[in-house]
Specification:
By secondary structure, the chain is mainly alpha-helical. The chain contains ten helices and four strands.
C-alpha cells in the first residue's frame, strides 16, 4: 500500500485528489485511512505530506492563468488602452479590473430598496439638500447621488400630467414630464 500511495502523489496529485474522489476520479484511500497509514509509516507519511503540500502550491499557481493572459475585459475594453488595475479581495487574493468599466459603474446609479426610496422622497419633499444624505461619511448618508439621479429619472418617466401653468396657452392639456419629487 505505501508504494501505491507514494506513486499517486509523485505525479502531481494533491491530497484532495487522492482522498476526495468525485470529479477527480475514484479515491485511492479515504482521508482517515491516509492519516492512519501516515502514522504507521512516519517516514513515508512525512514525505507524502511534503509532496502533497508542494503539489498544492503548484496547482495554486496554475489557478487563474487563463485570466492573467486576457487582454480585454468582459465588455470588450482593451486593458492596454483603458487601463488595468488590481484590487484586494476579502479572501486575501488580488483580482484585476478594467479602469473604464469601474468608472462607468461609479457613474451609474443602482436601484434603491423601497424603504430607502421612501426616506429619500420624504427628505427631498421637506426641502433638505441632496448632499445631506448623498455625501459619504456624513451621519445621514443613505445612498449615492447617482442612485438619486436614477430614481429621479424613473419617477419622472412614470409621472406625466397636464402642465397646470400653461392652461391658457394653445397647447392646453399637453403632457410634460416631472423630473423631481413632488408632495402628494
Amino acid at each position: 500500500m505505501p508504494r501505491r500511495n507514494h506513486e499517486s502523489i509523485t505525479p502531481g496529485r494533491t491530497l484532495r485528489r487522492i482522498c476526495g474522489g468525485g470529479k477527480f476520479g475514484p479515491a485511492i484511500a479515504s482521508l482517515t485511512k491516509f492519516r492512519k497509514h501516515c502514522k504507521l509509516y512516519p517516514e513515508w507519511g512525512a514525505e507524502a505530506k511534503r509532496l502533497a503540500i508542494a503539489n498544492a502550491k503548484a496547482t495554486d499557481k496554475l489557478k487563474g492563468a487563463h485570466y492573467s493572459s486576457r487582454t480585454h475585459c468582459r465588455r470588450g475594453h482593451e486593458f492596454a488602452v483603458h487601463g488595468l488595475s488590481y484590487k484586494n479581495h476579502v479572501n486575501g487574493r488580488q483580482y484585476r479590473y478594467c479602469k473604464l468599466c469601474n468608472k462607468i459603474n461609479a457613474r451609474q446609479g443602482s436601484k434603491l430598496p423601497d424603504e430607502i426610496v421612501e426616506k429619500v422622497k420624504s427628505l427631498v419633499r421637506s426641502g433638505n439638500p441632496l448632499n445631506l444624505f448623498t455625501s459619504g461619511g456624513k451621519p445621514g448618508y443613505l445612498c449615492r447621488f447617482a442612485s438619486v439621479k436614477l430614481l429621479r429619472q424613473e419617477v419622472g418617466a412614470e409621472q406625466t400630467e397636464p402642465d397646470s401653468r400653461k392652461l391658457n396657452s394653445p397647447d392646453q392639456g399637453r403632457l410634460v414630464t416631472i423630473p423631481y419629487f413632488r408632495s402628494a
